[in-house]
Amino acid sequence: MTDQTAHRKLSFRILRYNPQENGSTPRLQRYELEEADGMTLFIALNEIREQQDPSLQFDFVCRAGICGSCGMMINGRPGLACRTLTRNLPPEITLAPLPIFELIGDLSVNTGRWMRDLGERLETWVHMKAGELDLGHIEETMDPDLAEQIYLLDRCIECGCCVAACGTARMREDFVGAVGLSKIARFRLDPRDARTDADYYELIGDDDGVFGCMSLLACHDVCPKNLPLKTQIAFLRRKIAAVGIK
Ligand code: SF4
Ligand code: F3S
Ligand code: FES
Questions:
Q1: pTM of the prediction?
Q2: What is the CATH number of the domain that holds 73?
Q3: Domain hosting residue 94, numbered range
Q4: Is 51 helix (H, G, I), strand (E, B) or coil?
Q5: Which pLDDT value is given to residue 212?
């Protein structure tokens, strides 16, 4: 009789490399552990670090798909380690850091700096209209459907998965990625933002912006928050292209 409660033996191959360390060279290191019920990659990596290799580097903060810090390549596909159940993966699991972003070490990358630079470049804050800067100005109420559309885009956790999956981002160092385009789409929707499509054209009307996107749509497939990237990018491209044609 087979034991129904037997757990699988998982075999991890993890890309190890510490650019801070003299003599460190990229290599795949193998670790094995027994799968547990409800095991996520977060749990598995912690177990490896606690029981087998304290030098293994990876990032986690919230463990709940909120902070965006645990993005990594999971069997070649970007995803959040804390939201990935090992039972949905084959027993051989290969983990690597997200490409594009600065490597800190092993599975840890600096998405924070990339996102901060992007935010500064695209000025990802509401540019209030002149009269609304007055203290005492009462904000107008927002149509609930519009507020919902903005909220959908505000759910981005800046995990970097869409950027890591994008062929254009691999070729163009300054490409703003789906995350950048979705942020512009978000502020463009916001009735409090004073910027016009001509202003947005200045920001993203080139090959590092909306015209660099080749509609590969990997961003849409991998976004862990299911942002409507496909429709937003297509809509934005039509609107921004119209400014260029005028
Ligand atoms: Fe992550 Fe999605 Fe935001 Fe891209 S758009 S950074 S995949 S949450
Ligand atoms: Fe890249 Fe997504 Fe465009 S994968 S090319 S940003 S549709
Ligand atoms: Fe925060 Fe995974 S640890 S999203």
A1: 0.93
A2: 3.10.20.30
A3: 9-109
A4: helix
A5: 96
State the pLDDT at residue 245. Answer: 74
Residue 166's nearest CA partner among 221, 119, 114, 111 is 221
- The tokens 């810090």 sit on which residue? 69
Q: Is the same domain home to 197 and 158?
A: yes
First-last CA distance in the chain: 75
Ligand nearest to the CA of residue 82, numbered in listed order? 3
Locate 43 and state its tokens: 């749990």
Pairing outcome for strands 77-80 and 92-96: unpaired
pLDDT reported for residue 1:
45
Which residues in the chain come in under a pLDDT of 50? 1-2
Domain containing 137 — which CATH number? 1.10.1060.10
pLDDT (0 to 100) of residue 4 = 54
Other C-beta atoms lying within 10 Å of the C-beta of residue 45: 25
Give residue for tokens 């956790």.
157
Ligand 3 pocket check for 172: Cβ under 6 Å: no
Nearest atom in ligand 2 to the alpha carbon of residue 230 is 7
My answer on whether 180 and 68 are in the same domain is: no
Phi and psi of 28, rounded to 5°? -95, 125
